[in-house]
Amino acid sequence: MTETTRRELLGWLAGLGVAGLLAPGRAEASTGVTALRGVTLVDSSGTRPDTTVVLADNRVLAVGSRDLPLPRGSTCLDLAGKFVVPGLWDMHVHGAYLDRITLPLCLVNGVTGIREMWGFPPIYELRERIERGEVFGPRLVVGSTIIDGPGSTLPGALVVATPDEGRQAVRDAKAQGADFVKVYSYLDRPTLAAIADECARQAITFAGHCSNHVALGDASDLGQRTFEHMYGLPLATSSRETQLRQAIADLPFDPANSFAWFKQVLEFERQATLSHSRSKAVHLAKRLRRNGSALCPTMVAMRVYASPADRFANDPRLKYMPAFYRDYWRDGLTQWVPVTPQEIRQQADFFRRRQDQVAEMHELGVEVLLGTDAGNPYSFSGFSVHDELELLVEAGLSTTAALKAGTRGAVIKPGAEANLVVLDGNPIRDIRNTQRIHTVLTRGRVLGPAERQRMLADVEKAAQEPFPAAVQTCC
Ligand SMILES: [Zn+2]
Ligand SMILES: [Zn+2]
Q1: Which ligand is located closest to the Cα atom of residue 229?
Q2: Mean predicted lDDT score pLDDT of the chain
Q3: What is 4-86+411-464's CATH number?
Q4: Could you tell me the distance, in angstroms and rounded to a whole number, from the CA of residue 286 to the centre of ligand 1?
Q5: Strand runs (DSSP E) across 99-229, as ranges?
């Protein structure tokens, strides 16, 4: 690898009039400088053809014209005709602890940041090891353990039954090293309010499912930062909300079969989409905007639950998944998915209506995040980010808006982290072009086509090795 001394680099930057972007270091020390020559940049600021980007130390140093002079010793990649987008973020994943599977699958797919929705201490440790450079992986933002109320359908969730227990769970999450608190479907309003208040005291955010016991707008007013899987949105925008909420309140609850209750609530949500109210949507959007709440619809995962069991069962990407995942995906789906032709039609219609609601919220100015729920059936680390981009566009977002969601609005500019994805086609013309990845640049490394193939082959091999018991694989 060629190198450039920092003294040379500082002189070159001064010549561009942009000194001061380098971290302090000895002038005689050397650093690897890489230039991407002649590319078209596509980011949240627009499209810039015939551009050269210069990177070092995982920072963008300069963005200039095609003929930008380069510092001596830099590596120049001639990428004329290619498109460069910021690294992608998956804002809803599981399974970061499967570090030899999840992390490389993200990186080869251009995913340089992930939000892990079920955290525990080994993942906090993994987050630090990645940042120290001991493990090669995307940036991790890691939630607390899943905090739920009595009746939780989720084995392994931390169940809190009172506001005081909720507060204690927040303090514990903070002490353990969580980046945010993950809340779930069965929290009652007083407990969610206590969690919200304790989060404010501890300067930590909370995010997760819209509780079945709290209206989405009310949870947003309490400060819930993100809402996953479109749960709660159909009810909150239905002209029959009052009746349907009463029906939920009247539902008999059998603690031995809480899933049946959960599924019936989903059925009421489906019915709610048949009485959608535009004016309620406008009012809800205003609250979400004011509170800074975002929607993370995870359509790619919800599409699986809305489809017949075999629709995704032969996905060629299954070879990258350990056996326990493949078994769990096959068996875990059976209680969710539609079976009869009528159920299949109904669920397809429900899915389409929820997509419309996400597009409407986006049109009304609510932030939409890209998330996959990777780890849940047929949602693949890394790969499914591109499926979700397609689904966001199918829902009605522009390709520009979908890409903005997928990159969290990043702009490629001097000083920005150099997480970049080089594509063979223009994603604004066709969002599927994000799948035509040529090279990924992150953490100062250049993952060209051969290196990405090698990483995929390693994942395929790792997936065949025995893994410890399947733990915490869902939701
Ligand atoms: Zn979930
Ligand atoms: Zn999830």
Answers
A1: 1
A2: 94
A3: 2.30.40.10
A4: 24
A5: 111-116, 139-148, 158-159, 180-183, 205-208, 226-228
